[in-house]
Structures are given as C-alpha cells and as structure tokens.
Amino acid sequence: MSTSDHCSWYGVSCNTGYYVTVINLPQSGLSGSLPFLKMDKLEYLTLPNNYLTGAIPNFDMGNLEQMILNDNSLDNGIPAFDKLPNLLDMILSNNNFSSIAYVLENCPKLVSIALTNNSHTLLSVHLDLCSAKQNTNLDDFVLDLTGTASNCSP
C-alpha cells in the first residue's frame, strides 16, 4: 500500500501532500460510534443520514471548517469542541442531543449551527448567547427551544 492509497477511497479527498481534507459519506450505511479523530488537515466532515450512535468525541481537528452529522442517532450531549478553532458550520439536527456544552464560546469563527429536531423538547443550553454572539460572526443559529431570551447590551 502506497502513502496515497487512502486518497482514492470512496468519500475521501486529499490535498497535494496526501493529507485527508474531506470525508464525505452521506447515506453510506455507516453505523456505530464516532472514533476520536485527530486529523490536522481535515476541513470537511460530512456524515449525514447514517446510523451513527453515541457521543460526539471532542475532536482535535484544527482546520475543520464544516461538520455535518445530521440525521443520525447521536446523543449524550455536544462536547465543548475546544480544538476546532476554524469551525464555520455545524449541522447536528435530527439526532438525540439533550444538552449543548460551550460550543459557541470555543468556536470563534462559527457562522452557522443547526440543532433542530433533537430528542428532547427542551435542550439545555449551557452557553452565554450574548457573549458568544459578540465573539463570533454567527449568522444562523437554528434551535427548537422553549424558554426565555434576554436582550444583549451593545
């Protein structure tokens, strides 16, 4: 097996240095839990509409820009993602999450997050949306929550 064999795998793209930059496996019949991934060059992780279960590990992927894991059976809360400084888009809708850690505080470049249609009527949001909004370029925050919202002072 040569050093570039993995670059020819279905759903995998690499850069010129043979580092994996894209994993794109929607509707691929994947099942089981997600492993902890430390992939410094990965930019896009796209695994929607599979049969993934369990918790999302606190991935260590400094270049990850897009994480799409919607329409699986992931649960056990969403980790802090303190090792994803370049994350722009996160789509985690249609899973079984019941809580969110400090995602917005640790992902300063996050522009879009979607968490609709998770298993509980009320997600327990453990973050300060006002300070998070000031520290990010967040344009799209899609949740289905009940509760109250407060105004953020300018």
Automatic annotation (TrEMBL):
Domain of life, source organism: Eukaryota
InterPro entries linked to this entry: At_inactive_RLKs, LRR_dom_sf
Name recorded for this polypeptide: Leucine-rich repeat-containing N-terminal plant-type domain-containing protein
Organism: Chaetoceros tenuissimus
